[in-house]
From TrEMBL:
Organism this protein belongs to: Actinoplanes ianthinogenes
Keywords: DNA-binding, Phosphoprotein, Transcription, Transcription regulation
Domain of life: Bacteria
Protein name, entry field: DNA-binding response regulator
Modified residues (4-aspartylphosphate): D55
UniProt key word Phosphoprotein: yes
Pfam families registered for this protein in UniProt: GerE (PF00196), Response_reg (PF00072)
Amino acid sequence: MSVRVVIADDQALIRTGLRGIVETADDLTVVGEAATGASAVDEVLRLEPDVVLMDIRMPELDGIAATQRLTATGCASRVLILTTFDLDEYVYGALRAGASGFLLKDAPPADLHAAIRVVAAGDALLAPKVTRRLIAAFTTGAVPGTPASPELDVLTARERQVLALVGEGLTNAEIGRRLFITPGTAKVHVARLLYKLGARDRVQLVIIANRAGLSPQA
């Protein structure tokens, strides 16, 4: 089944370029476009795509505010923030708003395709250099809203291994290959981690794992 995508960017040339890149993949389809944050919210609620490629800087509503509105409606579409900026304030704002991923616009087409698939599958994704800075900031308590370090005694040995690999930024498929389990089993372990540790999303699991100093052998 094809992943349905809506592109939200105020520049027509960018939208056209992104559409061309996305649709070079057989399993990805662009079903709509929006030039403002407000129209992005309307189009997403109307079309119910799997993934929204959301620019940060747009008129009427910026991408973060648009993401907040979509999250507030309970919309099931996953938001992948695309921007030329990797300033920390944008990353934190996007994650607090409920975005599932953050990717810079200079990423290669193959990375964009992979990011859309990862987000559509329910995983979270951050550009690698953004992930490193985010973890460093959260682990030093430099960002408001840092999740508290929970007790890990409630976890099984396997769950601790999975948490450590989530902390490395691995997807469910990559965790499966590392631990010789199926991606579906890895997904079940991640769901249990979210529940047991009271984490909102996969990004918070990354932070918890790094705060706890877990290694894959933990």
